[in-house]
């Protein structure tokens, strides 16, 4: 057992002293005694007492005395530089009064063992201080740790801080002061316990509701409910009513209810959890390893875009999908499309996350190596909201590869990392575009952002990719405190460094992705046709070396076209994946030159052309001229039938005989053709120019050419 000076002990069941806490003031080795001061007694003049060291050790062995702690008042737990000069002067003055006697061990022993101590009275007379004042200072000094800081003035408790003062016939607080002597203010109202209960009832009824009434409106409702009779009587007598003021109501409401109750009572539980709760946790408290959690979410971009095939066509605002690694803040995948938040768009973002990025970026004109965006892995868990990812299709596609974790409804803070990335992309890139909506911060009467839209989906996507690459290279202070590997290897706390160093040290939860499996499971499935012109999909034609080697286009021309299973990447029209045989995997097929108008376009452009074509067909299903032609044709047919009906009845043989002669007669009658060419030429020469106009003259007929096998 170790017994130290100034230590605190708790005595229980002792026959030497009452149960409570005691401080060891001193250990007298020459008389084998221990000087104790009771800390449970709050008397300002409590005196210490002495017990034998042998008895105290026996108490410790029998566990009647246990080591304990005594909490000092908060006003003593301050730094020297934070104490005011006035308080320091008081402390030093008080310590100077008792410094010489507290250091005298003989005085301490006498003060603890004798009822009368003449030495204290003599010292008080010599110092010119009252003896009781010295006793109070000694008790305070010993009680609070035998240090001069124990003598700081306890002004923090002045005025009964934290205690309610009982109301009397005199009002509490400062009286009402008129600004001028010409006006006399009403008497101050004295608040009673009955008034406090009315305040509490009114605040619960009106203020602590989601209707969010103001405190002044709550005060008026409280007067109507609880002080209506007093207001009526005072109004009839022509005097001010004796009711609490708004200031009194506000003061006591804030004393009755805590700030936390005010916050929770005026908002929904969901809003409190999202925007008002304390943020004591961290997103990496479960794991700091890359691949433990990927977060995915979508938002509508704050910019309007136009069609790549016609800038006069505004297409609205695209949807951005972002997939991010929670631990490293690395954006591992993205997708920008015209589709709303749906499984169709989400599967494109996930496939982009699980596959290498170099080909995807190259299609959009950004040439990078896979090392610049080294993310082609499957996470241990995918965190998504309770929306498009909760259906059966996502579970069937993703459950074999990763685990799906859903956040509660209306709780975007549960995946705050990806939500913050949207804010960064908007501020860094999207809000700089022409045609931006700036997050809805449009002043009334300002120019419609759709009028300024000039960027295509490809251009917007390209800039977002560049911003993501820059984001992955940016320094984030939080990463420096997430893992010691960055500091050990002297690397800047950037997402890409965090990602690479943890993968290099095999500290991650990532899985390798099989490209064929990702393509088959995540890319949108479609049906294509094998035609004589190639593989046809949505007006576009594709082919590959296997199609040419097997001469499938020729087979389709001879035997008819057939359907094939395929997967499309909606980010580009340059290629699709086709299963040419049900027993084989998907083959990469490239766009044919005949569809070169759609090269380097997004897949939605072919949909746009189909919609544009349908709109033109709907605008003019048939022409007005065709209607007139059809009606004239029917009228002509009717006239011809009537003419044929009115002609003489002759047989079919008579109708069909001498057809050649009749053709010649018809030519003579309709063209004035002469039998002899010389006569026609002479007649032509003798005719004037006016007579030539309107005449049809037959030219000489050339000799017939001999054909093979015809005798000369």
UniProtKB/TrEMBL annotation:
Q: Where is this region: Disordered?
A: 625-649
Stretches with biased composition (Basic and acidic residues): 639-649
Query: Integrase catalytic domain location, by residue?
Result: 286-492
Q: Name one GO biological process term.
A: DNA integration
Query: Which GO MF terms does the UniProt record name?
Result: nucleic acid binding
UniProt protein name: Transposase
